[in-house]
Amino acid sequence: MERVTKHFKRRIDKQTLLDLLFIAYEQGIAANKIADATESEFNIPYSEELFSIVLDALGVPDGEEHRAGLEELFYNTWLLDDEYETVESFYDELIFCIEEFFDVDNDLKQSN
What we know:
Blueprint: H1 14-38, H2 45-57, H3 64-80, H4 87-99
Helix pairs in contact: 1-2, 3-4
């Protein structure tokens, strides 16, 4: 999906980021249930946009080369495979992956 709003550095506190991730996750789960029930492809575009806002706030530049692996972590590993029990555990893994390539504000590190 093509982003309407281009990347810009956002200042969002950690709790709000966790809330946005949880909303995006719940929307993704709902979309999967609808797709399964109707045997068709269905998605909720705001789920993708919310995750993009989180990545913006964490300092990840736009572009598939920067975000593809993180999107795979969100959509495949968490949403489809359900490998994280809580939004906090997913957030910690997300921060760990982002820090490999980008600086993350200390106030946004670790969910605890």
